[in-house]
Design goal:
Layout: H1 12-29, H2 37-49, E1 52-53, H3 54-60, H4 65-77, E2 81-86, E3 89-97, H5 99-119, H6 125-140, H7 145-155
Antiparallel strand pairs: 1-3, 2-3
Length: 156
């Protein structure tokens, strides 16, 4: 394992941001890549959430209403999601993945696994599992980002 330089004072958020930028640039450079990372993230949340209100979905993604509509317009145009009126509240739109959306997501996740292998090559399998577990805890654990975001969205 590479030793940390004691004079490297960057915090965890700076390091996660640097890794995130590497992910985005690797995806952008990838030959023949037909997916956009933002769309893959949106599709993966929809798979997790199931049929969900458009406003709530936007808040989970930290998007304002306008950017949520723009993202969903692209996804709907490509046949990856459908939006329909909520039968219980005609003012509200529900969003869900289509079968094509599920297929595209599966293909994108296979490509993402290759990118992950490349970017995390410095970690052995145990370290990768620990890294995933820590990220999962930060996002989905008690008082994690996802819990705070969805709780706030439910009250808006």
């Amino acid at each position: 394992m590479a030793e940390m330089n004691p004079q490297d004072t960057r915090g965890a958020l700076a390091l996660v941001t640097m890794l995130s930028k590497s992910v985005y640039s690797t995806v952008a450079e990838r030959d023949g890549s037909s997916f956009k990372l933002k769309q893959v993230i949106a599709l993966s949340y929809l798979r997790e959430l199931g049929s969900v209100g458009q406003k709530y979905f936007g808040s989970v993604l930290c998007l304002d209403a306008n950017n949520t509509v723009l993202l969903l317009n692209d996804l709907e145009r490509d046949g990856l999601v459908v939006r329909q009126r909520d039968p219980d509240d005609r003012r509200r739109h529900l969003v869900e993945l289509t079968e094509t959306g599920f297929e595209v997501l599966r293909e994108a996740e296979m490509a993402m696994a290759e990118i992950e292998d490349s970017l995390l090559a410095a970690l052995d399998e145990d370290q990768r599992q620990q890294f995933r577990a820590l990220l999962h805890q930060a996002l989905y654990g008690k008082d994690g980002v996802f819990e705070r975001r969805t709780t706030a969205a439910a009250w808006s």
